[in-house]
Amino acid sequence: MNNFRNVTPPAVLNILVANCVVYLAMMLLDENRIYELFALFPVESPWFKIWQPVTYMFMHGGFSHLFFNMFALWMFGRGLEWEMGTKRFLAYYLVCGIGAGLVQLGMAEIDLMHLTRGSIAYHQYLWSPTVGASGAVFGLLLAFGMLHPNATIMLLFPPIPMKAKWFVIIYGLVELLFGVSGRMDSVAHFAHLGGMFWGWLMLMWWRYRDRQRYRY
User: Fold this and answer.
1) Among 26, 78, 121, 139, which one is least packed by beta carbons within 10 Å?
2) Number of domains in the chain
């Protein structure tokens, strides 16, 4: 445990712990009630609460969902936190996650417009929440690709090396394709893209602000 703490900076470590604690709480306590309060429901849903664009990113739909998100956080987040600093990294992570949630809410409103109000499909959509840290994690992937475009990433499936910039571009295009086509509709593809978009905006803002600050 001490070695884990030594190589894991505080923001990443605390986010990992928070997600694991919430997952355990969902297993041990009233999972349905936790979903009702803290998962992200469409704005028109009676279960929507103003804090849900924040809380949803600490919840997960199963162990594999939690594991892969936390693994990606640990793999990419450690180096980014050491580079950005803890405060800036935490701000970036939260902005990407909240931004992804807001994009998901916007897409939900668009989807609801295409459903007949009062229909079974309409009500099913209102009761379909979004959970997971994937939007924030996709923001981390974007940051890694922008800051280290030529770093080599070894893919798991298929097991081939790829430069970070191409990995991020291809992954983003795949998410866009799935989102537009409606394939794998149980996955919030536009929330993933939203996390990347808000991350890009934040990185661009920091770059502009730093250039202004250090202009001679």
Assistant:
1) 121
2) 1
- What is the rounded distance in angstroms from the CA atom of residue 176 to the CA atom of residue 184? 12
pLDDT over 60 (residue 1): no
Task: List the CATH number of the domain containing 22.
Answer: 1.20.1540.10
Question: Residue 184 above 70 pLDDT?
Answer: no
Structure tokens at 135: 């939007």
34: which 2 tokens?
A: 């936790």
Q: Residue 15 in 3-state DSSP?
A: helix
The pairing of strands 152-154 and 161-163 is: antiparallel
Q: How far apart are CA 146 and CA 207, in angstroms?
A: 12
The answer to whether 57 and 132 are in contact (CB under 8 A) is: yes
The tokens describing 84, both together, are: 């950005």
The domain containing residue 22 runs over which residues? 2-213
What per-residue confidence (pLDDT) applies to 204?
94
